Amino acid sequence: MIRIFTLRSPATLGRRVAENHAIHGCKLERGQLVIALIGAANRDSARYLEPDRLDVERREGANLSFGHGPHVCIGAALTMMEAEIAFRAILARWPRIALVDERPNWNGNPVYRGLTKLLVRKS
User: Fold this and answer.
1) Diameter of the chain by CA atoms?
2) Can you name the residues that pair with 35 across neighbouring β-strands?
């Protein structure tokens, strides 16, 4: 049996249960496959002042988007480098770019969470 916990996720994380226990009233038995959708990890109000606010310069808290320790994404460094190059190019072209709406429209997909659109004003 596969149990899925929906936590709004940019990625999934599959693991085998090491010992019997329960999470949020759901019994998990040793050996079961658990697929966690881990997107909420970066939206914890106990760690972030404004967890639902889009902030590309956020520095508070540890970012878990690419996993951690032995389970870190092998492409994390490349992705971060590509993002830095893209943001630098956008800011070089439009240095005063600004969000049109402070509340971006999220797609609602629990597996591949992302924006449906991000409206910006380029001055």
Assistant:
1) 57
2) 4, 14
* Distance, CA of 113 to CA of 116 (rounded, Å): 9
Whether the predicted model's global pTM rises above the 0.70 cut: no
Dump pLDDT digits (tens) for 65-82. Answer: 777 788 788 888 898 899
87: enclosing H helix or E strand:
helix 76-93
Tell me the residue type at 103: R
**Contact indicator for 17, 31 with CB cutoff of 8 Å:** yes
Name the β-bridge partners of 34. Answer: 3, 15
CB count within 10 Å of CB 92 equals: 8
Contact between 23 and 5 (Cβ < 8 Å): yes
In this predicted model, what pLDDT tens digit does every residue of 19-64 receive, in sequence order?
A: 999 988 989 999 998 877 666 677 778 888 888 776 777 777 777 7
Of 6, 108, 8, whose CA–CA distance to 51 is shortest?
A: 8
